[in-house]
Amino acid sequence: MEIRTIGIDLGKTVFHLVGVDVRGEVVVRKKCSRAQLLRFTSNLRECLIGMEACGGSHFLGRALCEQGHHVRLMPAQYVKPYVKTNKNDYIDAEAIAEAVTRPSMRFVPIKTDDQLDLQSLHRVRERWVVRRTAVINQIRGLLLERGITLRKGRQHLEASLPCILEDADSKLSGALRVLLTQLQWEVQYLGRQIEESDKLIVRIAGELEACRRLVAIPGIGPLIATATIAAIGNGAAFKKGRGFSAWLGVVPGEQSTGGRQKLTGTSRR
Q: By C-alpha distance, which of 127, 128, 153 is closest to 140?
């Protein structure tokens, strides 16, 4: 029995593994923890290992590559067509093992630690921005219930709120003034956090050669440059520039059939 291809259905703590031989027949089915999985693969000869691109897959992919295996990550939606029957973890792993051998399959490059760090920074910053917007909208809503309207935009709220809180004629209760003050402090705190993350992003963009080259393009700043590098690395996953444009969603989609071409809108995802 020689395992040539392995499909792994990932989980938080439990992993399901299916091993396939050179004829494509399943020879191993195994349920294990992360440590047990790495011990099992460390005793195998070099083989092709497929996994879905999801949380924890990049860490595990790097660990398996260090053992000498060839690791390929795939988008989950591309694996689903290879599930032949009712769904369970072993069937999913078998579908992954089959999908990874397809020559036309699209793979996700394994991200480095630096890419993951940069992507984490962007995601945390995005959460702070969303949270600040939610707090601002809540303040505007509370004031609207008291007959006080504010223009849209953070700068208008930051300019008007101190005057509203100090105005004795605004007929706001003491409890509401305290609550609005606390919300104002929260907006200011989130603003400081976002500013610090922006400074860190600018510094990182200045240190990375790839980011400096992207920033040289008109219309691209440190935020877009670092987000691009964090997502695609050196761009080797795309055979040509149009593939990158389609991934970004800046070219029309296509729903053509029967010789009739139908272009849809741009998703700008």
A: 153
